[in-house]
Backbone:
């Protein structure tokens, strides 16, 4: 699929390949396009979000040898939109000359939550107490017993996680007792999912720091943001939210250290918990991240532009914020009865969203389904309550239900 290779872009700028073609790839492509950089995406499906905007498309699975080899042949540098990759295959491609950014040293840590915990803990960085449960070596009974033993030390509830393949709260379970542990381990053992169990952190605030790092080790970070999750899914990002300068400063320093420890190239997102004044690293993502979509309008250089700059070896752009307050709210598919709206209703919704003053609406071109992440809205301004109210008004106009727990009206 796609055009033939054709001439390279003006000035010999390298062509960027992206494994995966979701919304992150779409926004990377848009940033690359502004810099005149040609892009090739590896899309699992012809209706993936980045397909209509990429310069070229290779259709195939991210774990497919032929599709990946085709991608590598069509570009100079390969980067990633998600973590569902086959490390051995990538290793082989790298040996054959593929230039992966981030490289395998980083990917190995980023694609596996057990590796992630182990690597960061080995460097003395703060992570929740955890234990890796080796599913291959243990049946469901033994797995459940291990979870219960861990809970005996840490107290219920504990948090059980799939080491690989989870996202947006899928693959994370809060387990509050022996019966729940047994039920979960039965299911996990039959699905052969590698698990870890960790202490439940009493979170005061969840935050994220996104860093962009060049191959030379130079790095810049956007200011830390507060993230609001409901049921493990990020619903809203606030700059600066409830983060005071001391906490924000410590979080930024910790994230830069993490980026250096995992030897990141490109954008690296670090999700953190603040609990009783202490910071814990929850997880990292070695790619652009939902918590920094606000940087498209809210910062001098967006995370997508700096990712492209970093992986292609160009200087990194200024990460200063452009507003005192920014709110970015995710747009989700409406509940089922509303999912089959006609063109006219969809047009009305769009009109209502675009009539909200200062609302930057981003829709990823995905077919609406209840609960599916379809886009985001960002509002920049001077007052925290005002930017939140406007961002939520636009997201709600697009059909996003407002979760009770976020207390938007009170903001
Ligand atoms: N150890 C923990 N203690 C308390 N809450 C947790 C813990 N781990 C995860 N969570 C909650 O679950 C959410 C999703 O977990 P995370 O590991 O980030 O998975 P995902 O890959 O789905 O983002 C977190 O944002 C946080 O709200
Ligand atoms: Mg997470």
Residues:
């Amino acid at each position: 699929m796609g055009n033939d290779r054709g001439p390279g872009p003006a000035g010999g700028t390298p062509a960027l390949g992206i494994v995966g073609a979701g919304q992150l790839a779409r926004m990377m492509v848009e940033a690359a396009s502004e810099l005149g950089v040609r892009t090739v995406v590896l899309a699992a499906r012809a209706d993936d979000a980045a397909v209509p905007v990429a310069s070229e498309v290779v259709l195939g699975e991210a774990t497919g040898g032929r599709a990946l080899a085709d991608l590598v042949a069509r570009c100079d540098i390969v980067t990633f939109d998600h973590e569902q990759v086959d490390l051995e295959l990538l290793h082989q491609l790298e040996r054959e000359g593929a230039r992966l950014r981030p490289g395998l040293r980083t990917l190995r840590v980023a694609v596996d939550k057990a590796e992630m915990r182990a690597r960061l803990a080995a460097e003395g960085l703060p992570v929740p107490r955890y234990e890796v449960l080796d599913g291959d070596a243990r049946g469901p009974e033994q797995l459940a017993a291990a979870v219960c033993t861990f809970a005996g030390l840490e107290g219920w509830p504990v948090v059980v996680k799939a080491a690989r393949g989870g996202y947006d709260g899928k693959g994370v379970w809060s387990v509050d007792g022996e019966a729940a542990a047994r039920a979960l381990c039965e299911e996990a053992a039959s699905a052969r999912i590698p698990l870890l169990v960790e202490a439940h952190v009493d979170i005061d605030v969840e935050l994220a720091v996104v860093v962009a790092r060049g191959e030379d080790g130079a790095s810049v970070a956007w200011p830390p943001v507060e993230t609001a999750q409901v049921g493990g899914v990020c619903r809203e990002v606030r700059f600066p939210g409830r983060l005071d300068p001391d906490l924000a400063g410590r979080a930024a320093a910790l994230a830069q250290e993490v980026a250096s420890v995992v030897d990141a190239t490109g954008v690296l997102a670090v999700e953190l918990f603040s609990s009783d004044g202490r910071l814990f690293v929850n997880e990292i993502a070695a790619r652009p991240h939902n918590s920094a979509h606000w940087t498209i309008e809210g910062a001098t250089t967006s995370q997508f532009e700096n990712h492209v700059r970093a992986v292609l070896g160009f200087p990194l752009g200024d990460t200063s914020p452009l507003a005192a307050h920014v709110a970015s709210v995710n747009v989700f598919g409406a509940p089922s009865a509303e999912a089959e709206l006609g063109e006219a209703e969809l047009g009305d919704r769009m009109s209502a969203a675009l009539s909200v003053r200062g609302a930057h609406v981003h829709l990823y071109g995905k077919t609406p389904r209840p609960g599916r992440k379809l886009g985001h809205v960002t509002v920049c301004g001077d007052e925290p309550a005002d930017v939140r109210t406007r961002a939520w008004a636009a997201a709600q106009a697009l059909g996003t239900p407002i979760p009770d727990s976020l207390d938007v009206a009170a903001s």
Remarks:
- Residues 128, 159, 161, 166-169, 171-172, 198, 200-201, 203, 206, 229, 232, 271, 282-283 surround adenosine-5'-diphosphate (ligand 1) (CB under 6 Å).
- The chain has three domains: 10-100, 129-199, 205-410.
- The domain at 10-100 is CATH 3.40.50.20 (Rossmann fold).
